[in-house]
From TrEMBL:
The keyword Magnesium does not apply. This is Cytosolic carboxypeptidase 6. Belongs to the peptidase M14 family. Its EC number is 3.4.17.24. Residues 460-490 are annotated as: Disordered. It comes from Kryptolebias marmoratus. Residues 479-490 have a biased composition (Basic and acidic residues). It is found in: Cytoplasm, Cytoskeleton, Cilium basal body; Cytoplasm, Cytoskeleton, Microtubule organizing center, Centrosome, Centriole; Cytoplasm, Cytosol; Golgi apparatus. Interacts with MYLK. GO terms for cellular component: centriole; cytosol; Golgi apparatus. Metallocarboxypeptidase that mediates protein deglutamylation of tubulin and non-tubulin target proteins. Catalyzes the removal of polyglutamate side chains present on the gamma-carboxyl group of glutamate residues within the C-terminal tail of tubulin protein. Specifically cleaves tubulin long-side-chains, while it is not able to remove the branching point glutamate. Also catalyzes the removal of polyglutamate residues from the carboxy-terminus of non-tubulin proteins such as MYLK.
Length: 490
C-alpha cells in the first residue's frame, strides 16, 4: 500500500508543474515518506502520513530533507478552487525529531496566519487540542512555489509511540454531531424534538432540532420562531461549536432558557453540508457546489439538504400561525478577528435601525463580539446566500443574519493582544447568542418584564454546567463592565 501510494504521488507531480493541486483527488493513506532512493526497511523517523479518516485532508507529501517536508492540501471534491482545510496524522516519529512542515498550496492569500494564528495539534497521549506556539509559524511568499503563500511550522516530536494529529482548526466531525444529538435524545427532554429533515447525496442525515415548551406549540397564539443553521461551509468547524453552545443553553435548566422556551420556538439545523464535513472539504459539497450560493433555486438531487431546509422555511413563512422572526446562518472567518454579523441593506431607515438591535444587544453580552466589525451589505456576489435570499423572501418583521466568528482569536475592550479561541470559548459565544434573545424579546415586550429581579440584567451566570463544572463559568459580566466596554470599543 505504501509503495503504491508513493507511485501515485509521483505520477501526480509529473502531471502538473503548478504543484499538482488540480490533479490531487484523494488523501494520503499511511504514506511512508523516506529519502529518495531508499529501499531498506522502515526506520523510526521515516514519517508516516495519513488523512484517510473522517474530515481528513492531505493530498500529497514531498520529501525535501530529513527535517523538511512540503505538504499539499487536497482540493475540495469536484472543485479545485478551494484548498484551505487540512487535517492529518503523523506517526513512526523519532523522539526529539525536529521537522519543518510547509503547507504550500493554499488557495487564499489573505490569512490569519499573518496575525499570529497557528495550527492545532494533539497526540494519542495528549488528546486535548492545543495551538502551536505562534513563534514557530511563518507565513510568507515563497519563490520555490511560484511566489505563492506558504505556511511553515516547526515542530519537535517528543514521544515515539504517539500518533500526532495536525489541523487547520479544531475539527468537529459529522460523527461527533451524531453522538451529541443521540446523547440529547437519550435525556428525553419534553421540550426537545429531533427529526431527520432529509438526507445528503451520500445518504447522511440532515438533522433538525425543535426546542420549545410543548404548551407553546399547541396554543392558539401566534408563534415566534427563530431558525438557525450551521456548517453550510464544511471547513468552518467553529460554527459547530457555536451551534452546540446555542443548543446546550436552550435545553438547559437556566432560568433564561426556560423563559425563552415558553415564548419562542427554536429550530436548529446543525450541519447543512454533512457530506462536505465528512469528506474534509473546506467550502463545497461532495459534488463541488458552494451550497451558500444556491439558495435561490436549489436542486433536490444536487443540493438535497439545502432544498429541504428552504422548503421548510418557505412552508413556515406561509403559515399564518407562525411569525418567522430570525434566520441566523453561522460561519467562521479566515481573515478577521472576533465574532461579528453581516446583515442586509434596506431602503426603509426604520427597518435598518431595527435590524441593528440584535447585534448591539449581543455586543453587550459577549466580550468577543464586535459591533464595529458588523456590516450590512447587498453585494451581488452574495445574492445566493441564505441571508440575502431569505432577507428578500421574508417580510419586514424578519431579520436575516450571517454570524461570523474568527478561526483564530478575539480582542476585548482594553486588551493589547488577541485572545485565541478555544473549543469552549466558541461554545460560550453560542450560549451568549442564545441568551441575547431574551434581551431582544424583553425590549419588544413579547416577554414581560415581570421575571425575577436577578434576570432583569443579562449578567446571569450560566447554569448549563451543573453536570459539567466550569462549562458556564464567566458568561456574565456586570453592568459596569459593559458600560466600560461600550466607552472603549472602537
Amino acid at each position: 500500500m505504501e509503495r503504491k501510494m508513493e507511485n501515485t504521488v509521483r505520477d501526480v507531480e509529473a502531471d502538473s508543474e503548478a504543484g499538482g493541486e488540480d490533479a490531487l483527488v484523494g488523501n494520503v493513506n499511511k504514506l511512508m515518506v523516506s529519502p529518495p532512493g531508499y529501499s531498506g526497511v522502515q526506520r523510526k523517523g521515516h514519517l508516516v502520513f495519513d488523512a484517510c479518516f473522517e474530515s481528513g485532508n492531505l493530498g500529497r507529501v514531498d520529501y525535501i530533507s530529513d527535517f523538511e517536508f512540503d505538504l499539499f492540501i487536497r482540493p475540495d471534491t469536484c472543485n479545485p478552487r478551494f484548498r484551505v482545510w487540512f487535517n492529518f496524522t503523523v506517526e513512526n516519529v523519532r523522539e526529539t525529531q525536529r521537522v519543518i512542515f510547509n503547507v504550500v498550496n493554499f488557495s487564499k492569500t489573505k490569512s490569519l496566519y499573518r496575525d499570529g494564528m497557528s495550527p492545532v495539534v494533539k497526540s494519542t497521549s495528549r488528546p486535548q487540542w492545543q495551538r502551536l506556539p505562534a513563534k514557530n509559524v511563518y507565513y510568507y511568499r515563497c519563490p520555490d512555489h511560484r511566489r505563492n503563500y506558504v505556511m511553515s511550522f516547526a515542530f519537535c516530536f517528543d514521544r515515539e509511540d504517539d500518533v500526532y494529529q495536525f489541523a487547520y482548526c479544531y475539527p468537529y466531525t459529522y460523527t461527533r454531531l451524531q453522538h451529541y444529538l443521540a446523547s440529547l435524545e437519550r435525556r428525553n427532554l419534553p421540550y426537545l424534538q429531533r427529526e431527520q429533515l432529509g438526507l445528503s447525496v451520500q445518504q447522511r442525515r440532515l438533522d433538525l432540532l425543535t426546542i420549545t415548551n410543548s404548551g407553546h406549540v399547541n396554543s392558539e397564539r401566534e408563534k415566534k420562531l427563530v431558525f438557525l443553521t450551521a456548517r453550510v461551509h464544511p471547513g468552518e468547524s467553529p460554527a459547530s461549536f457555536i451551534c452546540q453552545g446555542v443548543i446546550d443553553f436552550l435545553v438547559s435548566q437556566h432560568p433564561v432558557a426556560q423563559i425563552l422556551r415558553d415564548h419562542v420556538i427554536f429550530k436548529v439545523v446543525p450541519m447543512l453540508n454533512p457530506d462536505g464535513v465528512y469528506l474534509g472539504n473546506y467550502r463545497c459539497s461532495l459534488m463541488g457546489f458552494d451550497l451558500n450560493r444556491h439558495w435561490q433555486d436549489p436542486s433536490p438531487w444536487a443540493h438535497p439538504t439545502l432544498h429541504a431546509v428552504k422548503q421548510l422555511i418557505v412552508q413556515m413563512n406561509q403559515d399564518p400561525r407562525v411569525s418567522l422572526e430570525f434566520y441566523i446562518d453561522v460561519h467562521a472567518h479566515s481573515t478577521m478577528l472576533n465574532g461579528f454579523m453581516y446583515g442586509n441593506v434596506f431602503e426603509d431607515e426604520e427597518r435598518v435601525q431595527r435590524q441593528a438591535v440584535f447585534p448591539r444587544l449581543l455586543c453587550q453580552n459577549a466580550p468577543d463580539f464586535s459591533f464595529s466589525n458588523t456590516s450590512f451589505n447587498r453585494d451581488v456576489v452574495k445574492a445566493g446566500t441564505g441571508r440575502r435570499f431569505l432577507g428578500g423572501l421574508l417580510d419586514d418583521t424578519s431579520y436575516c443574519y450571517t454570524l461570523e466568528v474568527s478561526f483564530y482569536s478575539y480582542m476585548t475592550a482594553g486588551s493589547t493582544a488577541p485572545v485565541p479561541y478555544s473549543e469552549e470559548s466558541y461554545m460560550k459565544l453560542g450560549r451568549n447568542v442564545a441568551r441575547t434573545f431574551l434581551d431582544y424579546y424583553k425590549l419588544n415586550n413579547l416577554i414581560k418584564d415581570n421575571i425575577p429581579h436577578q434576570l432583569r440584567s443579562t449578567d446571569v451566570m450560566s447554569q448549563t454546567g451543573k453536570n459539567n463544572p466550569g462549562r458556564g463559568a464567566g458568561i456574565g459580566r456586570n453592568t459596569v463592565d459593559r458600560e466600560k466596554e461600550k466607552s472603549v470599543r472602537h
